[in-house]
Amino acid sequence: MKFRSLVSLGAVFLFSLFVTVSCAAQEQTTTNSASPTTAPIQMGFSAWPGWIPWQVSQEEKLFAKNNTQVELKWFDGYLDSINALTAGQLDANCQTLNDTISSVAAGADQVIVLVNDNSTGNDKIIVREGINTIADLKGKKVAAEEGTVDHFLLLQGLKTAGLTQADIDFQPLETGAAAAAFASGQIDAVGVFAPFTTQALKRAGSKELFSSKDFPGSIPDHLVVSRKMINERSQDVQALVNTWFATLDFIAANPEQAYQTMAQRAGVSVADYKQYNTGTKIFTIEENLKAFSPGKDMSSLSFAAQEISKFLVDAKLAKQAPDLSKIFDDRFVKAYAAAKKG
Questions:
Q1: Main localisation, per the record (predicted)?
Q2: What is the pLDDT of residue 96?
Q3: 9-118+220-341: CATH, from 3.30.43.10, 3.10.450.50, 3.40.190.10, 3.40.630.30
Q4: For 28-54, what is each residue's pLDDT tens digit?
Q5: What is the pLDDT of residue 316?
Q6: String of b and e for 169-185 (b: at least 16 CB within 10 Å)?
Q7: What are the boundaries of each domain within the chain?
């Protein structure tokens, strides 16, 4: 769930078909006079409204103000950033809960330390003219990036109408390619996230059928770090968390400046970027603390993780459910909250 454009969204949709982990990352870096003994944190992010604020962190030098050194790396292809973290090319990355669980199921040792946001409408199932109900999707060509949150959203929606993936002609396409295919009339429906939703909705007669707002709490987005990062540089993990909340404070105090920065990074107009606000719920420190607490619905990360793990196994996207006992570490948000109170 992220924004990925150095030039324009249209270019992203074409370019993202060819990127690889080694060349897809179009870097923007901040070097804060790294010490001889401590290398800058390699941190990835990509095209999603809940992660774009990190661009503000960079441009306003908020990493340095929170005593850490970061090379912030932009990925045009979201899955490339996940692969880079798994391969050890990154120390930290911005990922969904769904994709983090997939990585852990495949053997990665990754830890969620911060909730950036919940998707509350910016993940959408968009359909062509003539499709008016979920039941109308039966037999239709529907595209989404397999194993991602939009695939998860699609299956949740189908379930409400008594349908499964077997009832549609599922087209597993990378998100940018899926949006482009839908916009050009090649498929009947598509599951995509903002800002790719903007591109998909350019198709004449297209409309939203349902979105993440209809499934509250099912798509949380996070800052994820490697276990090695926590073990060897826990003070820098704390600095990243502190920087995130400092960034939110900066955006609240300087909204127009911040929106310019974020819209430029997203490759959309400021007006378009502001429209994404209602579709992304940025989490406060209090909401972070609540999310990390045990619960019996999707607002609790531990509960959501169990539900998503079941989905991955049932959809045969994971061979077996991963060990979720070590996937969350709330000590950093707790430390930030304690420092604010003190």
A1: periplasm
A2: 94
A3: 3.40.190.10
A4: 433 333 333 589 999 999 989 999 999
A5: 79
A6: ebbebbbbbbbbbbbee
A7: 9-118+220-341, 123-214
